[in-house]
Amino acid sequence: MAVQLRLKATGASPGIASGPAYVEQQPAPPAVPNQPSAVSGHAELSAAIEVAIHQLESLATEADAESSDIIDFQIEVLRDPTISEMASARITAGDNVVFSWVGTLDGYIRELESAEEEQLRARAVDILDIKNRVLAALSGTPVEDFPAGSVYVGKDMEPSRFLAHNWSAGGGIALYGGSVAGHVALLARSRSVPMVIGAGPFALASGQEVRVDGDTGLIVLQPGRDRPLPARSDSLPMTAPVADNGKQLTADGVQTLLFINLNAPDEIRSIDPSTTAGIGLMRSEFAVTSLADAVNEEKQLSIYRHALEWAGGRSVTIRMFDIGGDKPMPGLAAASDLRGIRLLFARPEITRVQVRALLRAAVFGNLRVMLPMVTFPSDVDNMREIFREEAAELLGRGTPHRLPPIGMMVEVPAAALTLDEFKTADFLSFGTNDLSQYLVACARNDIDFAGLRERSVPAVLRLISYATKLAGIRPLSICGDIAGDPRWTGDLLAAGIRHFSVAPPQLPAIRSAIVGLKSDGTRVAGE
Question: Are 463 and 351 spatial neighbours (Cβ–Cβ below 8 Å)?
Fold first, then answer.
């Protein structure tokens, strides 16, 4: 029997994936042709850059807002005259076009890799992506995809390769290097693709079975195995979706409700609404790709209406734009200390458009509106007044609308500790990602954040337990990463949580966890 080899890495995106390894090989540079003149070299490079830009623009047409921002960044770099001028100077000096491009970009990449800030080091792979895409255009060979359902193994992974791949068949990512602050890690988390980073070089053959555990940061190898590894007992079961309308009883008969988190609007295409109680968190900032979309009332109405009609009367909670700070929107200049509801108040020309779209969408289903980054009770009161004002305007124009319930994210520690004072919030939902960040005083792009977030879970759970007692009888849910981790389901039940909102792939694991637990969080005898 082959012996499993377990490698410790760092989880960058939660979840578990098993499959044949696709081991990335460093691409060979295109053959270096004889270059008769600098003029032809300049023209060749210019044409290759345009091909790369066209390819990225094609990717952007089917991308969500988060992915589009990444692609836009790469296109902006390709169009930066500084880089092309540096490469052109090398060509003029007599270098071949390929050597000129590689020499220019490699210098840029080395500069980023040696930066002190993790966020800058993480951008090195974006420049590597650009470099390889232009090289592929110079050689006339497309960037190679890898088999669906496989686990990508390599030093790092380019964002455009992630976006071009079809992840619907499963699969995962295991990187020798990488960064939790990198664009691929961000994309993997938003699309529920299990990913680990920082494993260091390890021997693995393409096709060899490998398991990636993004929850614990483990990579499990089994030499010579030609069948999938058995899944861990706490992995996501590969069974048909359960059509229970999101209702799940604990072992002692207490009902819980399971909702889904939604990023891109098209994510619901493959989800059967009968498997969930509805949408517990729709991150509306991911549904718009630009500032132009943010002030397009009709486009937003269409997006929200689509989600409500899919839900068929089930609850749909749409969070207003959580932008600003470390979540910028292209084209929107704002002070770095403004985020969430503070930025919404500072930019009424954006806020009132979204409010009108939400008011109009409410007539098409069971809509609830959630406010992001609320800190003080007046935040809820002032936003509720904006809803009333815009509702009055719509009434005056004879436009159908409805005033939905307005609740709040509980993600700022100051709000969690004073929930009894938020009398006008119709419902509450714990956002554990930001609670963790602010409790440990660490930015999400900090290299230590993944470890600190894991260590902060007991403090987050203690804060949630205290806050639920202050919440009174108002509807209460949880929608952060902890909600989708079965290790903490018992603690959340013990704290009084009965409504869970998780990424769709996490539903089976949380459903299974609840079955084996009593409503006080204790396990059933024999479990």
Answer: no
Q: Which three-class secondary structure state does DSSP give residue 494?
A: helix
| Residues paired with residue 501 on neighbouring β-strands, in sequence order | 259
Residue ranges of domains in the chain: 5-24+146-221, 38-139, 247-515
Where do the DSSP E strands lie in 31-71?
A: none
Q: Which residues does 26 contact at the CB level (< 8 Å), separation at least 6?
A: none
What are the C-alpha distances in Å from 407 to residues 107, 121, 373, 428, 493?
50, 38, 11, 6, 21
Q: Is the dihedral of CA 489, 493, 494, 497 positive or negative?
A: positive
Return the number of other C-beta atoms located less than 10 Å from residue 391's C-beta: 19
pTM above 0.85, yes or no: no
The total of other beta-carbon atoms located within 10 Å of residue 104's CB is 23
The Cα 195–Cα 186 span in angstroms is 10
If you search the block for the tokens 């964002």, which residue do you land on? Answer: 159
User: For the domain bounded by 5-24+146-221, which CATH number is listed?
Assistant: 3.50.30.10
**Is the Cα dihedral 418, 420, 424, 429 positive or negative?**
positive
Identify the CA nearest to 371 among candidates 330, 394, 339: 339
In this structure, what token pair is assigned to residue 299? Answer: 């486009």
Q: Please name the residue that has the structure tokens 């939660």.
A: 14
User: 3-state DSSP call for residue 428?
Assistant: strand
φ, ψ dihedrals at 187, nearest 5°: -65, -40
Rg (CA), the chain: 25
Report the candidate in 310, 287, 426, 298 with the shortest Cα–Cα distance to residue 366: 310
Q: Are strands 151-154 and 16-23 parallel, antiparallel or unpaired?
A: parallel
- Cα distances from 16 to residues 210, 212, 360, 509, in angstroms, run 11, 6, 40, 11
| Residue 446, number of CB atoms within 10 A of its CB | 18
Of the CATH numbers 1.20.1530.20, 3.30.70.20, 1.10.274.10, 2.60.40.10, which one belongs to the domain with range 38-139? 1.10.274.10
Per-residue pLDDT of the chain (527 residues), as tens digits, is: 445 677 888 888 888 888 888 888 655 444 444 444 556 777 888 888 888 888 888 777 766 666 776 777 788 888 888 777 887 888 787 777 777 777 788 777 777 666 666 666 767 777 878 888 887 777 666 667 888 888 999 888 888 788 888 887 788 999 888 877 677 887 888 778 999 988 887 777 778 888 888 888 889 886 444 433 333 333 333 344 566 899 999 999 999 999 999 987 888 888 999 999 999 999 998 888 778 888 899 999 999 999 999 999 999 999 999 987 666 676 665 544 678 999 999 999 999 999 999 999 999 999 999 999 999 999 999 999 999 999 999 999 999 999 999 999 999 999 999 999 999 999 999 999 889 989 988 776 566 666 787 889 999 999 999 999 999 889 999 998 899 999 999 999 999 999 999 999 899 999 999 999 999 999 976 55
Q: b/e string for 109-119 if b means 16 or more Cβ within 10 A? A: beebbeeeebb
